[in-house]
Design brief:
heterodimer, A: 133 residues, alpha/beta, D-Maltodextrin-Binding Protein, domain 2, two-stranded parallel ribbon, 8 strands, 22% strand, B: 399 residues, alpha+beta, 5 helices, 16 strands
């Protein structure tokens, strides 16, 4: 039983570690804290330093769920409720959802976008992985 | 009602088609709804969800209690300026009609932590009152009794919002000022409907989020006019007697230009997959309208898709009216005063059947899909002379 729990923890750690935060070419930020990632993706913050940041969620359900558990530290159900509440009280509109392929074809090349991918090899062209402090 | 829903769906489909074009990216259209039914077997009592409607279950099943369809259009004009319009089709609308606007405002995001809204907004009286129509966002199908007791639910005015980030949470404050109109629909033919005008609404709501704990308090005050032809007629007749003590009493307790204040306290604690929440409200006035005190405590546990819950709620009203003294009055005047005392006491005790409640609610929420949940709820509601057994079920969805 103990071995099973340890293996599960190890597996989950590696599975979560696969979610990489990536930024578009226009972003100047080199690193970011986990707490700022949470604030950015919950739209509690839209800029860091003086840099305005737009965030994009993933249409890939598994990736989206992994990201929420790993970086937002909430259950998927709670995040769903959070966005419904934010949206229908006119507070915030949830981030746009795009696939990893669609990130490459984003028309707006001037803005700084934050998104996430499952693995390093899924990196959209011209995007970079940002260092987590 | 059917026509209104069709109109909304038509507008919605046109917008959704237009929004596929990237040029319309700054616009978003979203909606929510509930298809729900309530049944209680007492044919003499109407079980309704708010004073805005006379519709509800009265010895047979009713779709009026919960069913609603809402549509929201958001336009983000610039990084800081956005507009929101939300319309709803429901029998519980505060204008007494099937179709109403819930939100219609412009928001200016001054900083990430501070924004200003101008226009039509819902009044954040309770923890869930700004999201009351979106059943998907909470566990119960019907929220505790206090949610149906306040006769104003939204306002036109200005709202300032500020959020301060703390190490493990945040402290947010909302200050608002405005005015509104609504309807009071009577289920008693002897009373009749009333129109409500509230002005100089001002208030403050403060919410503290600390890890899994939410604490909230709000205070609102307004000057209220409640206009009802029958009560005005009765008060007019007593006024015409030209007896100073009666006229002064009418002036003191009349339904117009009366200050009323609401104080709400709320808390929610979430641990593991469980939650415990509770709220208290006190409505205070010095008029023929009664004071109200209401509280509830509830809990639930989330087993993946299933969330059973239980809630206990209690509401009490008290009359503000102190009868006039007949001491030292001539016989004829004393007779008129005693008559007035009887009528005024009845007026001040009005609504007691729906303002003195003890309700136990049991139910569950089942998450059917990402955007839809099924709910069942059983309420046992003790009133002054009755006990109601209410069975409710419904589907809440967002799109």
């Amino acid at each position: 039983m103990k071995k099973f729990i340890i293996l599960t923890i190890v597996f989950l750690t590696f599975a979560n570690a696969n979610v990489q935060i990536v930024t578009s070419k226009a972003c100047k930020l080199e690193s970011i804290s986990k707490s700022d990632i949470k604030k950015l993706f919950m739209l509690k913050k839209t800029e860091i330093g003086k840099e305005k940041i737009k965030v994009i969620d993933s249409t890939n359900k598994k990736l989206y769920n992994d990201f929420i558990v790993t970086y937002l530290n909430k259950s998927v159900r709670k995040i769903k409720t959070y966005w419904v509440r934010m949206l229908f009280t006119g507070k915030k509109i949830p981030p746009k959802k795009l696939s990893t392929e669609e990130l490459t074809t984003l028309a707006d090349k001037e803005s700084c976008y934050f998104a996430y991918v499952a693995k390093e090899k899924d990196m959209p062209k011209d995007w970079k992985i940002i260092k987590i402090k | 009602m059917k026509n209104n829903i069709l109109k909304i769906l038509l507008v919605f489909s046109l917008f959704k088609t237009a929004l596929f074009a990237e040029d319309w990216d700054f616009l978003s259209v979203n909606g929510y709804g509930t298809v729900g039914v309530a049944f209680q077997d007492n044919k003499d009592v109407t079980f309704r969800n708010s004073f805005f409607t006379e519709k509800g279950s009265k010895g047979k099943a009713s779709f009026a209690n919960y069913s609603a369809l809402g549509l929201q259009l958001d336009a983000k004009v610039t990084h800081k300026l956005s507009f929101t319009v939300q319309a709803i089709a429901s029998k519980n609308n505060s204008n007494g009609k099937n179709l109403d606007a819930e939100w219609a405002n412009a928001k200016y995001q001054v900083t990430d932590a501070f924004d200003i809204k101008v226009g039509l907004m819902r009044l954040p009286t309770f923890m869930n009152s700004d999201i009351l129509n979106v059943g998907y966002s909470y566990e119960m199908l019907r929220l505790p009794d206090m949610y149906g007791l306040v006769s104003i639910s939204k306002y036109q005015g200005i709202e300032l919002f500020h959020r301060a980030d703390l190490e493990n949470g945040s402290l947010s404050s909302t200050f608002l000022y405005g005015q509104t109109n609504s309807k009071y629909m009577s289920t008693n033919n002897n009373v009749g409907d009333a129109t409500i005008h509230a002005e100089n609404i001002y208030g403050l709501a403060v919410k503290l989020l600390y890890n899994d704990l939410t604490l909230r308090t709000s205070y609102f005050s307004t000057t209220l006019d409640l206009n009802n032809q029958r009560t005005e007629g009765v008060l007019g007749q007593f006024n015409a007697l030209n007896i100073p003590i009666i006229s002064n009493t009418i002036e003191k307790y009349k339904y117009q230009n009366q200050r009323i204040s609401y104080l709400n306290l709320g808390a929610k604690y979430e641990f593991e997959n469980a939650y415990v929440s509770g709220e208290y409200i006190s409505a205070d006035t010095d008029s023929f309208m009664p004071d109200i005190n209401s509280w509830y405590i509830g809990s639930g546990y989330n087993f993946d898709e299933w969330t059973p819950f239980v809630t206990y709620s209690k509401t009490k009203s008290s009359s503000n009216y102190s009868p006039m003294s007949v001491e030292g009055m001539p016989m004829q005047v004393a007779g008129a005063i005693m008559g007035a005392n009887q009528v005024f006491s009845m007026m001040a005790g009005g609504g007691k059947y729906e303002l003195n409640l003890e309700t136990v609610s049991l139910g569950f929420r089942y998450d059917i899909a990402d955007n839809a949940v099924f709910k069942f709820q059983y309420d046992e509601q003790k009133r002054v002379n009755d006990s109601l057994h209410i069975f409710s079920s419904g589907i809440n969805f967002v799109f």
